[in-house]
C-alpha cells in the first residue's frame, strides 16, 4: 500500500525551478530518507506534501488523499519543519495537555517516556531548552498524535550523536509498532544508512535516485579505474541499466552482474559515498560507454 505518492510534481518560484517533474512512491510503514544538496528542493517538497505549498503541476497523495488543510486529513499527518517553531513560554507538559484536548488519539504516556529517554525536562519552558532539545520536543509532540505519516525536515541537524541515535531509534520503533510512514530530510547520510529502508535523492530539483536502501547498497561498488576493468564493464554490464561514475583512480559501478564484481575485485560502496558521487558527477550508462569506445 502506498502511503506517499509524488507524480510529475513541478514548482517554480519566480525564475527558479525548485522542483522539476519529481516522481516517487513510498510504501506504508517505510522509513524513507530525502537527501540532496542545499537548495535541491527538499524543504519545498515536504511543504507540498504537508499541504502548506501548492505545486504548479503534478499529483501528490499522502495517506490516501491529496494534501489539504482539512482537519480530518491533518489529524493523520505529523509535520515538523526546520524551525520547529514552538511557543517559548510553554512547557512540554502544557503542550501535551493542549495536544490531548485537540487530538484523538493522543499518547501522553509514551510522549513523557520518550522525553525521559532523551533527558528532556517536561516542566521546563521551551525557551530554556537547547536548540536540539526544542527540535526533539517538536518531533515527539508530532509522534504523540500517532499519525499515519510523519514528514520531518532536518530533524537530526542540531542533535549530538547520542541524541541522534536515540531519536532515530524512536522513529524506527514508531514505524515498526504503528506502521507509521516516515519521510525525513537530512544531510547526515551515514546515520541514515543504518536506519532508513528507502532513499530519495534530489539534485537540482530532480530525482536522480529513488530506490530501497538495500537495493542501492547491493548494486554499487568501487573498482579500480583501469583499462582492463573498463573493458570488462563494456563487455559484461547491462548496456541499458548499469552505469558508472569515474572519480580519479576509482570507478563507482552500479550493476547486478556479480561475475564482473568478482573479476574486478570490486568493494561495496557506502550510502554516503554513493550519494556524494551521484550529486557531484553525472553517471555514464554502459551503453554510452560502448558508443564512446
Instruction: Compute the CA-based radius of gyration.
Output: 21 Å
Low-pLDDT stretches: none
Secondary structure tally, helices: 12
Judged by helices, strands and strand pairing, the structural class is alpha/beta
Overall spatial form: elongated
Mean pLDDT: 93
Cα(first) to Cα(last) distance is 44 Å
Strand order of the largest sheet: 5-6-7-3-8-9
SSE series: EEEHEHEHHHEHEHEEHEHEEHEHEH
Proportion in β-strands: 25-35%
Query: Helical residue percent?
Result: 25-40%
In words, what does this structure look like?
It contains twelve helices and 14 strands. It is of the alpha/beta class and 293 residues long. A hairpin with a 2-residue loop joins strand 8 (198-203) and strand 9. It starts with a strand and ends with a helix.
Short description:
By secondary structure, the chain is α/β, with parallel strands linked by helices. It contains twelve helices and 14 strands.
Topology:
Elements: E1 2-13, E2 16-27, E3 31-36, H1 42-49, E4 57-62, H2 71-74, E5 77-80, H3 92-102, H4 108-117, H5 131-144, E6 149-153, H6 161-178, E7 181-185, H7 189-193, E8 198-203, E9 206-212, H8 213-217, E10 220-224, H9 227-236, E11 243-247, E12 250-254, H10 258-264, E13 267-268, H11 271-280, E14 284-285, H12 286-292
Helix pairs in contact: 4-5
